[in-house]
Amino acid sequence: MKNQINSFSRSHPIITQEYAIFTPPMEHMIKTIGDWIDQRVSGGYIYGPSRFGKSRTLKWFLRHELEQRYNCYIPLIIWIRKDSVMSEGEFWNQLLEASKYELSDPIKPKTKVVARSLFEKRIKTIADFSECNYVVLVIDEAHEVTLKEWKWLLGLQNNLDNEGIRLSIFSIASHSILFQPNYLARTGNPHIAARFFAVDMRFDGIKRMKELHYILQGYEEDSEWPENSNITYFQYFAPNFYKEGKRLSNHTAIIWGAFESLFPVELDVRKRTKISLEIPMQHIALTIEKVLRNLLDADSWDHIEDPNYWIEVIASTGFSKHMKMIVNPA
Amino acid sequence: MVNKYKNQPGINWKKNSALLSETIESFAAKYCFLNHIKPANFYDNLYDLIGNYLKYDNIKVESLLKISEIFHEPLDTISSIFTNSYLYNCTPINRLLRFEVDHFKTLSYCPKCIKSGYHCKIHNCFWLKVCPIHNIKLCQINLYELHDNAKPFTYFSIKILTLTKLFIDNCKGWPFNKSNNLDLSNIYSIENWFYNCKKVYSQYETIKLELGVSPFRYPVDYFGFILNILNNLHEIPINIRDWMPHSNNTFKVNRKIFNFKNDLRLTFNGIKIKNIIVLYLFNLQKISFLTNKKLYQFILDQIINIEKIHQEKRCLWSNDNSYSNWFLLKNDLIHYNSIYQPCIFEYAIQNSKTTWLNPELKDLSYYRELIKLCNETCIKLIDNNLAFYDKDNDNLYSFNTIQFSWEKEIIHFFDHILMGMAECYFYSLTQWLQMMTSPKNQKGKFQSSNFMDFAMSQIYLKFNSDNSCEVMSIEGVDK
Asked: CB-CB: which of B10, B15, B45 is closest to A101?
């Protein structure tokens, strides 16, 4: 029986890591973007340390949640900027592809003039389709966007503006984008800073125990695989324990304590007042995934109640090292 | 997680910009402009999108559904654009000759419609002189003059490019502009008429003819020749200089069809037919209005009249041995003996009066001989005795007994007798001739007769007014 589950579970989202659990910071980010859309903000940026779940929010939740909120189609293009340097032709071709343009062919990219014109028409098409004069372009990894690229986008925004279409560009980036508005403003491009960095929001990690509790419940109650099976992720990997009423969320305090104990000591001591515990979503996910995999073969629930077990699992995800990297004591 | 809103179009397109009864060129102009596609690649591109190749007169419903889905346009609109385009653009002859739809050399358009970003299928009709929507005279662009080196298969692309330019120049914001609400009711009336016309036409049996000499033999449509009877197009053979110049021989042979020469290769059910008029009568048996007893009686009366005439002239063919006499005389006397003019009716009377109009034709050999007997004398005779059936009064008239004027009776002629043939008349005869004629050579340019322009305009106007059979005056057109 176990073997059967093992072979089948190779395509389980927990194994493939193709899933996302909704978290309070995600909710905050979506709400913020929603507010910016309401205000027709010309550009804003959302920043936060890496692996906190920003990109997952874009991939899995942003469009859907916004559409639920507005109860209509949202004219939204999500572009994940891939390369650090690119020509104008590549730039527009990538944007075309991001807009799910069926006629774009990566093997035969359009020339820059054609690609730019096509993308402009694409924006108009999307605006027209949504029956409004507004389109949102969300750029993930926006800290990689170069000055030239901002200028191209500025030109596009101006052109569209001239034709009565508003284009908002929201950047999702790591901490490093924080320097950009200042840098742009001081290097003769304050108009770009004012246009694309008008508002901002920090994407937080998991800061409170009740947030962790909420996430654990996501694995136990608000997830499903296979589709339409009503089997949650936790139930799939630990069916017997699930029947017995065992839940990971009942041990949130133990898990939170384990994270706290692995929070780098030097940070904790030196910047105790400024740096609070903030857990990246990735490490929570890696921890839970590992625990769930272990539960497949587990006969006893005892180890779940052991704080040392959690410390061991969390340590194996590289949590401490990651925190040292992303939190700059200086 | 199912996203119920994920219907964002995968291509650049303005929602609801496809308009009812719009031309494919107009649709393609928008699509090509918005997606930077070469007009020549329009169909290939659609093929990539929908996975089916679009055939002009046989578009699958699945293809239409797919297009409707991709473009987010109502199915009926897409259907009105992609189906029946051949009805307006393509003649049966063109299809048979494998000419592509839309490759005709003239682009007709209404300036006001263009300002609204609209180009209607009806505008493609060569006989239409005014816009049914705005009642103003249609403009025409000779694409052949614009593009000197254009080949026939490029006219579709040229039309798209020309339309694109027209739209950009005249319609601000095209194709993202808000289209004006055009009153298309007149268009629907005409389409309805076309539909009925087609329905009637479908009741007729089209005879496939072959034209030319092997290996350059082309199937052509029988109905295209009908109007020869009316003596309107007698100038055509003089003016034809060049069409389908596959070989000199082909050209020479084809030219002769209008002169009713013997070396014309026309066949019907394996029978060689050397005369258009015989062919016409031959087929009259099969069309529905001949079931009318009065018409039947009329033709029989005509036959009796001819018999009487020939008896008065002591016609040689009253002899029992007429068949052999014919062959005897065929070579020697026929062109010289004006007294004993051989007559198809006479032969019919002599041999099988009762089967002359019998649709259940069994004795093909008889008809084979019958056809052989035709000559120009017969043509004139029959021509003079063609029936005109007045549906309103339920009367039959002979053409030579009617003092008709073009304005009224000809329209009745089309309406009540040749209604079903009108479609082919429109699309076969004149367009075919225009297509085949080189406009470069002014002498060779086919001049469409005033009659056709006038009559067709009248027909349009007539059917445009709720099929009421009221003929509007051409003066009513805002020029």
From this structure: B10
